[in-house]
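The pair is listed for reference:
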Amino acid sequence: MQHLKDKVALIIGASTHGGIGEATARHYISEGAEVFLSARRLKEAQDVAAGVGAEAIACDITNESQVEQLVREVMSRRGRLDVLVIVAGGYSNQSVDQLTRETLQSTFELNVVGPSFAIKHAARVMGRGASIIYISSATAQLNTPGIAAYGCTTAAGERLVEVAAFEYGARGIRRNTLQPGLLETPLSQALLQRPGVRRAYERETPLGRLANVDDVAAAAGWLASDGCHTTGDRIRVAGGVHLRRHALPEDYRDG
């Protein structure tokens, strides 16, 4: 049984092979959905889309007029929008002592302002039973050095989702957050290949292995399906790392 049959999904922030956006698109299509991918880098998004059988549209999530046009384009091609997944986000690695106005503003734009535009314009065309999913991070709750801007802005993004879930509940549009920890992705390979890092993170993960993008995609599949009766919630996909803590640099040296 295909749990997303005839649904139209838009995934914003899907320009990396091996990333969450690509894995979610592949999972949605296997479940019967029609999928649009969007990113600022159109060529990369087109490459990912071609590999999974989706369509690609360029959009900078921090530009409200582009977000509005993106939603219009999806509606003009399919006449409906049932699922929005917001993967686009900004990461910075700076301690509090190193923070600059530019870092704080750019991270906030990507993790809060852009998602608010996407939620606003997608919701205007969505009907009862639609689903909006915000991809956050375990760093919204767990501490590790250098995540001041990223952690506080993803936490703000999660709060945005909760308020939106409350405001739009009467319309039957669900809004939830997916909160992965450190994932096995091409972008994390350099870190995970450093001596002791993988073992340190696995020690802090009760299930004993790091989550991967397919784990996140499976959770996004459930949140998008008609079998989901959850809104304003945070679904953790990190093997239980929230029950312990983030691995710290000194743990790597002990690995």
Notes: The two ends are 45 Å apart (CA to CA).
